[in-house]
Amino acid sequence: KGDNLYINSVVAFKPKTGEMQWHYQFSPNDPFDYDATEVGMLVDMKVGGAMRKTLVQANRNGFFYVLDRSNGKLLAANPYVKVNWADKIDLATGRPVESAVMKRIRAGADEEVFPSVLGGKNWQPMSWNPSTGLAYANTLNISWPYQYAKPEYKRGEWYLGVNFRGVTMPKDQPHGFLSAMDPMTGKSKWQMAWPGQPSMAGTMSTAGGLVFTGAATGEVMAIDADTGKKLWEFQTGSGIIGLPVTWEHKGQQYVTITSGSGGVWALLGDERMAKVPAGGSLWTFAVR
């Protein structure tokens, strides 16, 4: 009951004393288990024509947030995927404005909710390119049926308080995208649709104008940060859910990524992953 602070929140502390400086709660009460463990990025960017020190996060609840990281003030919050549980985020209060769908759920109705419990994006890190002014993330186009239910404890089973029936994959649309997003508007300059299984891998942006990420089917790839054109890919032999990293040695830039299928698709038992080999490996590539 109530907001249940500090779930689904970002909290700032003084490192020397542990004193809390400010907090911001993305989804009060968090009825959909969106949480807020997605990686927030510290970005210096123009807001209203002036440079601001911000914290940006594409929350699992479907809204892209821009906060003043010095005081937690909300500067922008706009949907970056389809959202129907809230109409908008009130910039004055920082709270979501509940939609008609949410009001029917509170009255006991069974509704299809966007985004699903997996979120508009999941926990995987996104990346930022100051030259393009865009954030890059693997986003999801998935919903879920949602209805309140009285929780009944059964050993070894879900204990949720909702009638959980999994997630809903759209039949005539991609299930996920690599999205190049404007944090202030939530809109994508470009999107690359994932065929079949959407990616749960992180992204990494380079000063050379590349975005690296991986596919659930095992491909690691380099994308043009400005246009979204795929420039290179390599099959690693197993699904990728990790984060690419880049490093330099003796003047040569390298990219390293782990490969090994698993994660949420394995947890949910998605049949499309049956053909993806298991196993783990570490791959390093030279950037030329």
How are the secondary structure elements laid out?
Layout: E1 9-13, E2 20-25, E3 41-47, E4 50-58, E5 63-68, E6 74-79, E7 86-89, E8 96-98, H1 100-106, E9 111-113, E10 127-129, E11 134-140, E12 144-146, E13 176-181, E14 188-193, E15 204-205, E16 210-214, E17 219-224, E18 230-235, E19 245-249, E20 252-259, H2 263-268, E21 281-286
Antiparallel strand pairs: 1-2, 3-4, 4-5, 5-6, 7-8, 9-12, 10-11, 11-13, 13-14, 15-16, 16-17, 17-18, 19-20, 20-21
Describe the structure.
The protein is mainly beta and 288 residues long. The chain folds into two domains: 1-195, no CATH class; 199-288, Thrombin, subunit H, CATH 2.40.10. Helix content is 5%, strand content 39%. It is built from two helices and 21 strands. The chain has helices at 100-106, 263-268; strands at residues 9-13, 20-25, 41-47, 50-58, 63-68, 74-79, 86-89, 96-98, 111-113, 127-129, 134-140, 144-146, 176-181, 188-193, 204-205, 210-214, 219-224, 230-235, 245-249, 252-259, 281-286. The strands form seven sheets. Strands 3-4-5-6 form a four-stranded antiparallel β-sheet, with no helix packed on it. A four-stranded antiparallel β-sheet has the order 10-11-13-14, with no helix packed on it. The longest helix has 7 residues, at 100-106. It is globular. The model has no long low-confidence stretch (mean pLDDT 95).
